Amino acid sequence: MNFFLNHWPLWFISLAMIVAAVIDGWKLKVPNWLTFPLVLSGWALGLIHSFNLLTNWTGGGDVWASLACTALGFLLLFPVYAVGGMGAGDVKMQMGFGAWVGAFYGFATGLWVVFWAFCLAVVIGGVLAVFMMLARGQLRQNLANARAIVGDVLAPTKLGTAAEQAAQRKPTLHLLPYGIPLCLGFLSFLAYYVWAYGA
Hints:
Elements: H1 2-6, H2 8-27, H3 32-50, H4 55-58, H5 63-82, H6 88-105, H7 107-136, H8 139-154, H9 159-169, H10 179-197
Helix pairs in contact: 2-6, 2-10, 3-5, 3-6, 5-6, 5-7, 6-7, 7-10
């Protein structure tokens, strides 16, 4: 019981990630009514901690850690969003995760958790994408799209040009509800971190 009480923000954000992934898998969209409150409530928790309130039950991060982890979540996904590789809801979903993780763990640990959870989500997303391509029988077209998206992210091109190229690609894209691999990456890494470090 003490473990649950001391880690309830992690349980809460995990449940929110599951809800977001289910909605994304169903509607191919993570709604604003879920993501915006997640981000704002994570910041609110960090702000409460900044006044040294509730830190025994809700972690030890402050509002600056929450904002920093939110920003990292945004920066990690924005380049892919900007070239049409994923939806804005996925970006905001990761920002919500960052807001709560930063408020709970603090600056250094929060950034570390957000980064490695994202890396794990990328691996899971890649595996799921390959299975989806094989199942749909359009591996060549999808690989060409993936290569173009990666090229747009890595190439020093103008954002407007990349957006135009993304719009041209959109009719040929098979969408992966990226909220699912994000959720799996977040939950898997959080479970590992709590198991390995007991916090």
